[in-house]
Write a structure and sequence with these properties.
single chain; 2 domains; 0% strand
Length: 202
């Protein structure tokens, strides 16, 4: 029950913070809002860290954390930039993928695309979670120390990175196809020049 409550609190926190930041970008610059949000997060985390661990992190852990933080800042900035120029709601941070997918469809195609995207998300998410869980179980099964358990999670992380990079291949292919389709449609929409009839000499 506690895990469910924490998950709901995390979802409400992420959705509420992104919504508030999106509203703020309507009045201030995206960079200023992102810096203020991240600075507030750093202060809050710094207040909690001394009570959550008994030893200082290693340099590799610090570097990985810094990389994760930089990626998070870039993602937040891109999300806030989209919120500044488009309509959004509290659930926008969750439905960003669906919004991007539906933006390239016509109004008639959305009714068919919505259930298909839902099925793909459910099936793909379930299969991906199951595969990563099996990999983690195999890695952590013989881990009897904290260092071995950390190494098991690290190896599983590389599996996640590999699957993510593999998913980028069809994404890039689809983006290229979409660009070609838009170019072809734009060329077809250009009206052909009308030739005026020649006047015959009397």
């Amino acid at each position: 029950m506690l895990a469910v409550l924490l998950a709901l609190a995390a979802a409400a926190g992420y959705g509420g913070s992104d919504y508030a930041a999106g509203l703020a970008t309507r009045q201030a610059s995206v960079v200023r809002v992102t810096v203020l949000a991240e600075a507030t997060s750093v202060v809050l985390v710094a207040c909690v860290v001394p009570f959550t661990g008994s030893q200082a992190p290693s340099w590799p852990s610090v570097l990985w954390g810094a990389g994760a933080g930089a990626s998070g800042v870039a993602g937040a900035m891109a999300l806030y930039l989209g919120f500044r120029h488009a309509a959004f709601s509290v659930a926008s941070s969750v439905s960003a993928v669906a919004t991007a997918a539906f933006s390239v469809l016509s109004r008639e195609q959305v009714n068919d695309a919505s259930p298909q995207l839902t099925v793909l998300q459910r099936v793909g998410g379930s299969l991906g979670t199951a595969i990563i869980a099996v990999v983690l179980q195999g890695q952590i099964q013989g881990a009897h120390t904290a260092a071995a358990a950390a190494a098991a999670f690290g190896n599983t992380y590389w599996w996640v990175m590999g699957v993510t990079l593999l998913a980028l291949v069809p994404t890039l292919v689809l983006a290229r196809i979409e660009r070609r389709t838009k170019a072809t449609t734009a060329e077809a929409a250009i009206p052909a020049p009308v030739e005026e009839p020649l006047l015959e000499a009397a």
